[in-house]
Q: What sequence folds into this?
């Protein structure tokens, strides 16, 4: 879970989503807001920065639909690698025990061709990690859910957001 120090640290990766065709405009808008490491992609703009940079983008951007914090990336060559990678992330730092999880999977590769299966395998990995974790976040009790968005990149890596 992000603490007060993480609001000024510049080591977070984010995506700001937008309609396709608006990526260049959104990138220019984010740069004008002082956002570091802006990189236009398809339907979104990636950037690196602090949580304050993300809040600034949420507050002042007229083009960004949402701003998403990237929690981690894993090598997802196949279902077992996906499960191992997702379960290696510290989910207990992000959500409390018993939280509801929604996984939205996009993209395929040679071994992972069904997005419903990818979403289910990801949810299983998160649940397995949470069941095996002895430390659980109590600060997030008021927010009982997490939406996990998976994107399969051409480099065969899965980005978790």
A:
């Amino acid at each position: 879970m992000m603490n007060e120090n993480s609001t000024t640290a510049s080591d977070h990766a984010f995506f700001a989503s937008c309609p396709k065709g608006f990526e260049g405009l959104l990138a220019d808008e984010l740069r004008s807001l002082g956002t570091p490491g802006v990189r236009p992609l398809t339907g979104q703009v990636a950037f690196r920065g602090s949580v304050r940079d993300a809040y600034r983008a949420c507050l002042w951007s007229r083009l960004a639909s949402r701003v998403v914090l990237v929690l981690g990336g894993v090598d997802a060559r196949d279902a077992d690698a996906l499960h191992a990678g997702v379960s290696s992330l510290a989910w207990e730092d992000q959500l409390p025990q018993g939280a509801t999880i929604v996984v939205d999977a996009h993209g395929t590769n040679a071994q992972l061709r069904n997005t419903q299966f990818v979403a289910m395998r990801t949810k299983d990995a998160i649940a397995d990690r949470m069941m095996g974790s002895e430390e659980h976040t109590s600060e997030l009790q008021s927010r009982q859910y997490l939406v996990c968005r998976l994107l399969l990149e051409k480099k065969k890596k899965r980005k978790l957001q």
The mean pLDDT is 82. The domain at 72-160 is CATH 3.30.2130.30 (VC0802-like). The radius of gyration is 16 Å.
